[in-house]
Amino acid sequence: MDGPAAAAVHRSPAAGAAGVGTVSWGFVVPWLLATGRVAGFLLALPALGGPRVPAAASAGLSLFVAASAPLESVGGLEASSFAALLLKELAVGLFLGWGVALAFVAVQVGGQVAELTLGLGSGQLVDPVHGHESTVLARLWSTLALVAYFATDTHHQALRLLGLSFDRLRPDQLPSLVPFVEAGFELFAASFLAGVQVAAPFVAASMAVETALALGARAAPQVNVFLVSLPLKVGLALVLVGAFLPHTLGGVTAIWDRTLAGVGAVLRRWP
């Protein structure tokens, strides 16, 4: 670690306590810094945090989880250095939670892509995970993702990744921003691709129906294709949603596995 924060960290506790505007409470300082990382992580993490969870519950859980993190005593910190490290911890926690939450984004992207091709994109319902309106199929898949999130013990794996982050990046370290930016683009691209892959069977079926309707319009020009296509595509969509439900659930589980593996790979690349 370089800069004034590093110099302040390596000062002796006595010197830190003697300085004006310093924070030197032994293990209390790293605990508070770790609480910032955990709070940011839970804020972005699906189901365990977010605006729908009471603030008191999130704060208590953050303090409890931070107390179990592997921490080392830190010497006297200037108040400005402590504030900078606390903001860094919040950013790290938000980044990790956002990386895990991208699995829900991938599922929503897949649902919206499938609905646009199957003609189900007009209905709007409240998404129970994020608290905003979403389309019917996207909400169904988001609920499946939430079920898989708890059924496959993914929430515990996410907390293990948070613990791994303390081994790779101590609260008193200031890392480079380059790995964060690169990993952010990689995780976002991977989540978008995963969502499209889950929606691929529905897109292929919709293209087959469109091709059949086009051939039917050429063979029987007197048939109003626009009146026939909408109920046909909606009926096909309902059949496909039921037929491909096991495939969808397996795809959602695979998205969780790939998302956690991607976040873990990012943590292992940190110096």
Structure description:
The protein has 10 helices and 4 strands. The chain has one domain (4-269). A two-stranded antiparallel sheet has the order 1-2. A two-stranded antiparallel ribbon has the order 3-4. The chain is mainly alpha-helical and 271 residues long. Helices cover 73% and strands 4% of the residues. The protein starts with a helix and ends with a helix.
Give the overall silhouette. Answer: elongated
Work out the strand percent.
Answer: under 5%
How many beta strands in the DSSP annotation? 4
- Major sheet: arrangement of strands: 1-2
Q: What is the C-alpha radius of gyration, as a whole number of Å?
A: 24 Å
User: Treating each run of at least 4 consecutive H or I residues as one helix, how many helices?
Assistant: 10
Q: Can you tell me the residue ranges where pLDDT is under 50 for at least 5 consecutive residues?
A: 1-24
| N to C succession of SSEs | HHEHHEHEEHHHHH
Question: Mean pLDDT, rounded to whole units?
Answer: 75
Give the count of structural domains: 1
Alpha-carbon distance between the two ends: 11 Å
Q: Classify the helix fraction into a percent range.
A: over 70%
Label the structural class. mainly alpha
Main sheet summary: 2 strands, antiparallel
Assembly state here? single chain
